[in-house]
Amino acid sequence: MKKYQGKGVYGAVAIGKISLFKKNDTEVKRVHTEDIEGEKKRYEEAKSLAMQQLQEIYDKALKEVGNAHAAIFEIHQMMLDDDDYNDSVYNIIETQSINAEYAVAVTADNFAEMFSAMEDEYMKARAADVRDISNRLISNLLGNFTEKTNSDEKVVICASDLVPSETVSLDKDKVMAFVTAHGSSNSHTAILARNMNIPAIIGAGEDFLNGIKSGDEVIVDGYTGEIFVDPDEETRKRLIEKQRDDEEKKRLLEELKGKENVTLDGHKINVYANIGSVSDIGKVLVNDAGGIGLFRSEFLYLENSDYPTEEQQFSAYKKVLESMAGKKVIIRTLDIGADKKVDYFNLKPEENPALGYRAIRICLTRPEIFKTQLKALYRASVFGNLGIMFPMITSVSELEKILEICDAVKSELKSQDILYSESVELGIMIETPAAAVISDKLAPMVDFFSVGTNDLTQYTLACDRQNPDIEQFVNTHHEAVLRLIEMSAENAHKYGAWVGICGELGADTTLTETFLRMGIDELSVSPAFVLKVREAIRKTDLSKKQ
Amino acid sequence: MVSKKVTVINEQGMHMRPAGDLAKAVKAHPDCEVTLNANGKTVKAKAPMQIMSACMKKGCEVEIVCDGADEQAVLDEIAAMFENGFGE
Q1: Is residue A88 over pLDDT 60?
Q2: Which fold has domain A1-22+147-233?
Q3: Nearest-CA distance B53 → chain A (Å)
Q4: Quick check: A149 pLDDT over 50?
Q5: What is the pTM of this model?
Q6: Per the CB 3.0–4.6 Å rule, which of A115, A275, A338, A492 could disulfide with A127?
Q7: What mean pLDDT comes out for the span A303-317?
């Protein structure tokens, strides 16, 4: 197996055989001529043929990739009509008494060099367009223009570089991927490949081109930019699986994009995503989640060597809220302690950290840390649709204290004339058996519950989830856990709160129907599971008896 | 000879599309020479690739100079094209 690295410009995986794309031989010879008018006429003819070809390619591209990207071929026509370009060709024919092919080649070099020398990336990339139209003219002059690939099976097209007209002219049904040794991600080839939904890698390098031949077996991973020539069994297995997951995801996206999460009998439910840092927002959007059901704010503390300032936190929260453009964003206040340790918190070693000084317990004993976070959250609240969620609740008095602190923070902001949203929803995690058991007392105090199934399971079953030796005793579908969830859901609804699940169990599609029957209003899962859960919901029918 | 200063408002600057449109408009007036002064360069406005060679980005100040028949009318027409961003 040989491995090469390029830059992926369209994410997808393709497995197949290489077809080395060779350009027609456009070697141009300098030929002296006396018939200057004749050469000019040959150029005229080649140019009008090129115009006609470009019109055909434009029409094809318009159908395949849409107006915005087909426009390049209209622009190529404009370039062919450029007075400077044409004057240069005529000039060279006249003054040097030479053939039109050579005049075009010299002109092409001059113009391409002019663009290459420019500082702007867009302008630099235009050198490829000049070469494209010039090669077309030369091929027409030589009378050997063909643009077809001659293979019967689907292939991975590998080339030094592909100019836009070559990319579009390829028979799409026979191309499963592009790999070029050169090229930039700004090039039209990259843009067109993205629009044709074909995996594409650029910049694979000269070594790649020299190391392959037509017919070689190849796997192209457009996500990572990796190219495996003559792959070994393990790599093949891994990428076949990746390809299958990818296709499944794309199929689901195609099917579900923009559709509501509604059961067959008309019951609606929200499917949100769990994330752990600002950089995960892209995954939320790509997987078409309805919002963020759990944004773990710990990253702000874990990434820092000292307590993150109010400003630092504010700008992170603001960014998430703005990126989600009005969709729900539920941010959980800090959940440090237990397995998440931060040096500057100076937490003492504990006999039993899962049952120790963590999360809301830190916040309530060190309110200055908590207030800084709440101030940042409330200030950011005007930039979107914010919910704030508190972890590790076990009693009514804890929640009373939290709500008091929230009120104090709001009054402080008000006295400083700092705006905050009045519609911020407040909720708690149901992740201790205590919270579930007294959920009837807690529900009237909040807007929502979110069940953290990981901790709820570990506390209910008295099983340390980090200990592999007791894995056999951890039944994630244990009736005790499910009953606690059901009880919390009932109490939430009784007192006008909504209830969601943000633990791993939420993504377990064998339980989706169970949760829906309990009346769960929201499932928040890691971005990769959003589409699967949405599909499961749309297949569920609650009107049928169990 | 008349001239006017304008500013490029197109997001991508004077790229191929507006340059092509500009050249087309200029060629419709063969008896009036139109040149552009920008970024310390002087280019003829009748050829799109030459227009692009001045690398006019968004916010770039451009002096349009018209010399010949109907120069004021041509100047007004070209200046208006810049001002409405070549319809983009």
Answers
A1: yes
A2: Glucose Oxidase; domain 1 (3.50.30)
A3: 7
A4: no
A5: 0.58
A6: A115
A7: 93
